[in-house]
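User: Could you check the structure of this?
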Amino acid sequence: MNGNVLQTRTALWLVWLLSLNTLATAQRAYRPYQEPTDRQLGIYFPQAPVPGEWRKAVGLIFTSTPPEITEEIRLLVPAIDLNLQKGLSKHWYLSGRLQTQILQSNLALGPRYATRVTDKLYAGLGIDAVGWFGALTIEDVFNSQALGLQTIPHASLGYRLTRDLQLTFRTEGVMDLYYRSRAGSLEIEYNRRRLNGVAFVFALEQPFYKQRHVSLGIRALYSNFNWQFWSLYDTFEREFFYPQLFFDFIL
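Assistant: Sure, the predicted structure tokens are below.
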């Protein structure tokens, strides 16, 4: 039953992505031809903004919970997704990303390097310093807080299919640096560096409506820790698969 549910959700995600792409293609058919420009709007595509220029995006990211954690039920957990990038030079830029569910949040900051390989192929490298914090409090029932530090090195390949359509594949390594949690008077603290997982990102960036562009795609995370579920990890010491779906409007 769980396998059927997962297959159904995966199929719906693919249909959703294809529908958005079809809509954008139809819109482009009514526009006059335009020569490609050197830079296109994108958050995941490995290309630096013009020096001094800001890129901004806002959207949602949905994480599917492993059934082992949520008692054989897969839930889609949403978080607000904010992205901000600043061009430093032709190849270098800074990136910041905030994911938040109000009671718990994740902030990533780091430098990135991107270069053109061919007319359509681009490549990039980067590393993000990540800090997260969560607090769950119910008076006289539950009082728990946690925070942690991670670092995520990553490499990207981007391919520009058309003037408006960009595809990106990115690999990530997720490394723990620090963890501390407190539940009542019980406190747990780890100060060790270890690789706890890997992730693969497939992103599509294209026009959506008029001059608005979107980033949409899937992130496949295989890890023994996910910051959104920190309150459930005391009893688990194994890796889980976390499929994630993201959708962002580029401002």
